[in-house]
Specification:
The structure is a homodimer. By secondary structure, chain A is of the alpha/beta class. The structure holds 3-isopropylmalic acid (2 copies).
Chain lengths: 347, 347
């Protein structure tokens, strides 16, 4: 089984290195690794954020462990050359359409959230975000209005097949959890959302055991602040999912702890921490590697079918936290490597 | 000066009635009132959520005091007949493009937020949301893909003139406050946002005294949870503004207290509480009328140029709260009318 390691920019290399140490410690037979260039690092080395060799490696791999992309040096590049294009390109080229973002408070860190402790500690939700369609990938461009004004445009759309696929992901995830699915849209304004809602309702016929509800996105943004504990699984489109999943992770508080997976039809997946490349602390050994370690755990679970080993990683992270391991973002002073040491010790 | 009263659905008539009492108590010479049907109430009476007589009254009025629209009985109507179309139609037909939503914690209610008290009490921000363009009003519809699949689509766009107008609103508001403007977009993905950002930067040349920053919408949703006190004025498009302004109001906690204004080029405005029609408590005298009372205050300030009278309303509301007036949503037992009484007593 081939794992592609894409460390990327900023703190990416530091945190991926610790996740790799943890994977190595599990001594899983038959795992091989190849490293690839992505993001600003790839642009600087070879002139493109997602070079052909990287894309080729991604296609060959069973799973991708991804650090982070984003580099202030690249801010003034044309959009198609910016680091973020690596992640968008990988999602599109590999058909990685189902982005899973669990948000749950670690009991030891319940006070880290800006939300009141009783509100934050009730959070245990999963956002299932579609990542192959919507206004992200529709036709877009600059044009002139009839009066000669500059105008930017982007076409938002979903077809029934795209919605059906992600709806099944949402229902299946809900079935494996607490049996509640909330579909988020803006059907009072958008035709794209109206189709979304119609198709989610059609798919729900296959899941009589899952309780389906619908919520407008503005209300969902309110409810995620007021009472995030009400949610089990949220399924939503690419644009709304981008916003709500970041909001939900911040509700948890310790964003350095949150992992994510993005899967395609053959369970090939890209695994990454939800935080960014943090250029301000890059290279200083201050980054918290736990979100990346937990992403490696998700990788073992979803793409490599090694649930036992995934459980071991998760237990080791929980144990390290319980034993007091705290990086700077968690109010402690432990370095990136020391946090890796703590997980290894707990394994 | 003509004020159009549009009570609408659910608790709308109850809360508008209290705001009207407060306006009457100010005995402002030359104010006249006419009432119009909107929303589900209008649909049920005459078959359309925004009947021609209502639109005509709105055009003639100097300002509109709006209750709320939304009626579960109308959920299965076609979209163009649903109550929400009243508000969308008024915004579009009257050119009401600049939606102002102040969010600030009342000291007496600082504990009402799900956010920690020290986080919530630092909130003092204004969201300036564009409400005449974006994916709300672009071409939209259902079509078939080449493979015969149902597809919903909505075109998102902004032209430079639309962005320029709302950018000026944002900069002017920032100048009148703490001098900080944060423009929120998704320029790493959307061409519409790229134009937005370019034009906001162009307009900033006229406001060297305002500190301009840019933030992606996903990050803004995080920052509104993590540290909402960092914001002074946020300017953003229709879609992102819908989500972020609802999120921000929930951060404040007491959503029954928050007012809004939507202005056009001639300072004609629509004033409404940011909460909805609350059909579950309609007709029970339990609704909090203070957001509508404060909306009437904004109306006096922005459309009628009566800042002194607006100050009086705001002071009376603050006084009533300080004296212990609490409706059900604020943890008390006072009825809608009793809350109105409390404001009148404080005037
Ligand atoms: C980097 C950016 C293009 C990306 C997105 O908007 O999808 C990121 O915010 C994410 O959520 O993975
Ligand atoms: C009712 C709805 C169409 C409206 C909107 O999305 O603009 C509402 O949510 C608002 O924010 O005023």
């Amino acid at each position: 089984m081939l794992i592609a390691l894409f460390p990327g920019d900023g703190i990416g290399p530091e945190i991926v290195a610790q996740a790799k140490r943890v994977l190595d410690a599990l001594a899983i037979p038959g795992l091989t690794y190849e490293e690839g260039l992505v993001g600003g690092a790839a642009y600087k080395a070879v002139g493109h954020p997602l070079p052909p060799e990287t894309l080729d490696l991604a296609r060959r791999a069973d799973a991708i462990l991804f650090g982070a992309v984003g580099d202030p040096d690249c801010d003034s590049l044309e959009r198609h050359l910016r680091p973020e294009q690596a992640i968008l390109g990988l999602r599109k080229e590999l058909g990685l359409f189902s982005n899973l973002r669990p948000a749950k408070v670690f009991p030891e860190l319940a006070d880290a959230s800006a939300l009141k402790q009783e509100v934050a500690s009730a959070i245990d939700l999963l956002i299932v975000r579609e990542t192959n369609g919507d206004v992200y990938f529709g036709e877009k461009g600059m044009r002139k209005t009839p009066e000669g004004l500059r105008e930017g445009y982007d076409i938002m759309s979903y077809n029934e097949e795209e919605v059906r696929k992600i709806a099944h992901q949402g229902f299946q995830a809900a079935r494996a959890r607490r049996g509640k699915l909330c579909s988020v849209d803006k059907a009072n304004v958008l035709e794209t959302s109206q189709l979304w809602r119609d198709v989610v309702i059609e798919v729900s016929a296959d899941y009589p055991d899952v309780a389906l509800s619908h919520m407008y996105v503005d209300n969902a943004a309110m409810q995620l602040v007021r009472n995030p504990g009400q949610f089990d699984v949220i399924v939503t489109g690419n644009m709304f999912g981008d916003i709500l999943s970041d909001q939900a992770s911040m509700c948890v508080g310790s964003i350095g702890m949150l992992a994510s997976a993005t899967l395609n039809d053959s369970n090939q997946g890209l695994y990454e921490p939800i935080h960014g490349s943090a250029p301000d602390i890059a290279g200083q050994g201050k980054a918290n590697p736990l979100a990346t370690v937990l992403s490696a755990g998700m990788m073992l679970r979803y793409s490599l079918n090694l649930a036992d080993q995934a459980d071991r990683i998760e237990a080791a992270v929980a144990r390290a936290l319980a034993d007091g391991a705290r990086s700077f973002d968690l109010g402690g002073t432990m370095s990136t490597v020391e946090m890796g040491d703590a997980v290894l010790a707990a394994l």
